[in-house]
Design goal:
- The protein is an all-alpha fold.
- About 90% of the residues lie in helices and about 0% in strands.
- It contains 14 helices and no strands.
- It has helices at about 1-50, 60-80, 80-95, 95-100, 100-160, 170-200, 205-265, 275-305, 310-365, 375-415, 425-430, 435-490, 495-530, 535-580.
- Helix 1 packs antiparallel against helix 3 (about 80-95) and helix 2 packs antiparallel against helix 5.
- The protein is elongated and about 240 Å long.
Length: about 575
C-alpha cells in the first residue's frame, strides 16, 4: 500500500512538474508578448509625437523635405502592420488564463487603437504637408506672376507715343515685341488660378487667403491688359496721325516735284517731242497711282481731326492745301498734254511735209530726165515705168491736197491765235512752213508738167521707133522689087518666068505703095506734131520716096513688052482650051 501510495505521490509529482513546466512556458510566452507590446507601445508613442507635430516647414524647400520624410515615415508605419498582426496572433496563442486577463485585452486594444490613430494622423499630416507645400508653391508662383506684371507695367510706362514719324517704327516694334510675351505668359496666370482653385476645392485651411491671391492676380492681370489696350489705342492713334501727316508731307513734296518737272518741259519745242510726251505720260500714270492716296487724305481728315482736336485746324489746312495743289497739278498736266499734242501735231505735219518734198524731188529727178532709148521693147519699158510714176503721182494727190488743206487750216488758226497759244518758240515759228508749202505747190505743178513733157517725149520716141521699123520694112520691099527687076533683065529667063516675076513685082508694088502711103502720112503727122526728130523723119521719108520713084521708072521700062507677051500667051491658052473642048 505504501508503494502504491508512493507511486501515486510520484505520479502526482510528475503531473505537477509537467503542469508547472507548461505554466512556466505560458508565462514565458506571455512575458514575450508583454515585451513585444511594450516595444510596440513605445514605437507608437514615438510615431504619435512625430505625426502630431505642427512643423509644416517655413518655405517650399523645407515643406518638400518634410513631405519626403513623411512619405518615408508612412512607409515605416505601413511596414509595422505585419508586427501588429503578429501581435494579434501572439495573443491568440496565449493561454486562456493569460489571454483573458484584463491587461492583455487592454494592451491589445490600446495598440490597435493607437496604430489606427497613428495611420489617420499620418494621413492628416501628409495632407497638411501637401497643403503647405502647395501653398508655398502658390506663394512662389503668385509672387513671380505679380512681380512680372508689375515689371511689365513699368516697361509699358516707358513706351511712349513718338513725337516724330521717324521714331514710330522703333516704338511700334517695341510694343509689338511686348505683345507676344504677354500672350505667352498668360498660361502662368492660368496655372496659378488652377492651382488655387484646386486647393480651394480640396478644402485648404487657407482657402480665404488663396481666394485673395487669385483675385489679386486676376485684378493685376486685367489691369495690365487694360493698360496694354489703352497703350495700343494710344500708339495706333498717334502713329496713325504721324503717318497721316507724313502722307500729307509726301503728297505735297511729290506734287511740287511733278509740277516742277511739268513746268520744265518746253512743250512748244518740237525737238525731243517723243521724250517729252513719254515724260508727261509717265507723270500721268504716277498721278493715277497717287490719286487714291490724295482721296484717302480727304476721307481720313475728319477721323484724325476728331481724334486729335488740338490739331484739327492744322490737319484740315494741310489737307486743303494738298487738294488745292492736286487740282493745280492736274490742270497743269492737262495743259501740258494739250500743248504737246499741238506741238506733236506740228512736228508730224512738218515731217509729212518734208517727206512729201523729198518724194517730189525724187519724182522730179525721174520725170525731168531727157534720156530716150532705142528699141520698141526698151521704149515700152520706159513708158511703163513712166506710167507707174503717174500712178504714184495720182496716189500722192490725196496727200498733196491734205497737206495744202492742213496748211491753210494751220494758217487760219495761227492768225486767230488758236493753235499755238503763245507756247511755240520763235525757232519753231520760223520753220519755213509757208515757204515749204509754196515749194511743194511749185514742185507739184512742175511735176505734172514734167511728167506730161516726158510722156510726150517717150511717146514720140516710140512713134519714131515704129516709124523707123516700118521704113525698114518698106526698104526691104523695095529691095525685093529691085531683085526681081534684075532677074527680069537676064537673057536666060524664059518669057513665062518673066511674066510670073512681073506679077510678083506688081503685088510687091501694091504692098509697097500702101506702106509708103502710110509712112508718108505718119511722117507728116510726126512733123506736124513737132517731133523732136522732125528733120530726120523728113530726110528718111524723102529718101524712101526717091527710092520708090527709081523702082517705078525701072518697072515702066520693063512692063510694056512683058504685058504684050503676057496677053498673047493668055490668048493662046484660051484658044487651046476651046479647041480641046
Amino acid at each position: 500500500a505504501r508503494i502504491y501510495q508512493v507511486q501515486e505521490h510520484y505520479e502526482k509529482l510528475v503531473s505537477l512538474c509537467k503542469q508547472r513546466e507548461a505554466r512556466l512556458l505560458e508565462v514565458v510566452t506571455y512575458q514575450t508578448y508583454l515585451n513585444d507590446t511594450d516595444e510596440i507601445l513605445l514605437w507608437l508613442a514615438d510615431m504619435e509625437k512625430i505625426v502630431e507635430t505642427e512643423d509644416l516647414g517655413k518655405d517650399e524647400a523645407t515643406a518638400q523635405l518634410l513631405l519626403k520624410k513623411h512619405k518615408a515615415l508612412e512607409e515605416e508605419i505601413s511596414g509595422y502592420e505585419p508586427m501588429i498582426s503578429g501581435l494579434k496572433k501572439q495573443q491568440d496563442n496565449l493561454s486562456s488564463q493569460d489571454r483573458l486577463l484584463a491587461v492583455t485585452r487592454e494592451r491589445q486594444d490600446a495598440i490597435e487603437s493607437k496604430y489606427s490613430d497613428i495611420i489617420q494622423l499620418a494621413k492628416q499630416r501628409r495632407q497638411l504637408l501637401v497643403f503647405a507645400y502647395s501653398m508655398f508653391l502658390l506663394y512662389r508662383e503668385a509672387g513671380g506672376v505679380k512681380s512680372w506684371i508689375l515689371e511689365k507695367e513699368s516697361l509699358l510706362a516707358t513706351i511712349t507715343a513718338p513725337e516724330e514719324y521717324t521714331d514710330a517704327d522703333v516704338v511700334e516694334r517695341r510694343f509689338e515685341s511686348f505683345l507676344p510675351e504677354l500672350e505667352t505668359y498668360e498660361y502662368r496666370i492660368e496655372e496659378v488660378t488652377d492651382l488655387g482653385q484646386q486647393l480651394i476645392g480640396k478644402s485648404h485651411p487657407k482657402s480665404d487667403e488663396i481666394e485673395d491671391i487669385i483675385r489679386e492676380i486676376a485684378e493685376l492681370w486685367e489691369t495690365l491688359n487694360e493698360h496694354v489696350e489703352d497703350k495700343r489705342i494710344e500708339l495706333i492713334s498717334t502713329i496713325s496721325l504721324q503717318q497721316f501727316k507724313n502722307s500729307i508731307h509726301y503728297c505735297v513734296n511729290w506734287i511740287t516735284c511733278k509740277a516742277k518737272a511739268l513746268l520744265a518741259i518746253q512743250s512748244g519745242d518740237v525737238s525731243n517731242i517723243d521724250t517729252k510726251i513719254r515724260t508727261v505720260q509717265l507723270i500721268e500714270k504716277e498721278l493715277l497711282l497717287l490719286q487714291d492716296k490724295v482721296a484717302q487724305l480727304d476721307t481720313e481728315v475728319e477721323k484724325h481731326a476728331r481724334l486729335s482736336p488740338d490739331e484739327r485746324a492744322e490737319i484740315t489746312d494741310s489737307v486743303n492745301k494738298v487738294s488745292q495743289q492736286w487740282g493745280e497739278l492736274n490742270n497743269l498736266l492737262a495743259e501740258k498734254k494739250k500743248q504737246l499734242e499741238k506741238t506733236s501735231y506740228l512736228r508730224a505735219f512738218i515731217t509729212d511735209l518734208d517727206s512729201f518734198l523729198l518724194w517730189e524731188d525724187e519724182a522730179l529727178t525721174e520725170v525731168e530726165s531727157k534720156e530716150v532709148d532705142v528699141g520698141i521693147a526698151r521704149v515700152d519699158l520706159k513708158i511703163k515705168q513712166h506710167n507707174d510714176i503717174r500712178a504714184e503721182i495720182d496716189t500722192f494727190s490725196g496727200k498733196y491736197h491734205d497737206l495744202l488743206a492742213t496748211g491753210e487750216e494751220m494758217k487760219e488758226q495761227r492768225i486767230n491765235g488758236e493753235l499755238w497759244d503763245g507756247t511755240v518758240s520763235e525757232q519753231n515759228n520760223n520753220n519755213g512752213i509757208k515757204e515749204k508749202l509754196s515749194d511743194m505747190q511749185e514742185k507739184w505743178y512742175q511735176l505734172e508738167d514734167s511728167w506730161d513733157n516726158r510722156a510726150k517725149l517717150l511717146n514720140q520716141c516710140r512713134a519714131l521707133q515704129l516709124f523707123k521699123r516700118d521704113v525698114r520694112l518698106a526698104e526691104n520691099t523695095l529691095n525685093k522689087q529691085d531683085t526681081v527687076l534684075e532677074e527680069m533683065k537676064s537673057a536666060d529667063v524664059s518669057p513665062e518666068v518673066r511674066i510670073r516675076k512681073l506679077e510678083t513685082f506688081e503685088k510687091l508694088s501694091v504692098i509697097a505703095d500702101n506702106k509708103l502711103d502710110t509712112l508718108r502720112k505718119t511722117a507728116n503727122a510726126l512733123i506736124e506734131d513737132q517731133h523732136y526728130e522732125s528733120d530726120q523723119i523728113r530726110e528718111i521719108i524723102e529718101a524712101l520716096l526717091k527710092g520708090t520713084l527709081r523702082t517705078v521708072s525701072a518697072l515702066t521700062k520693063r512692063r510694056m513688052p512683058l504685058t504684050t507677051l503676057s496677053d498673047s500667051r493668055n490668048s493662046w491658052r484660051t484658044a487651046q482650051s476651046l479647041l480641046s473642048g
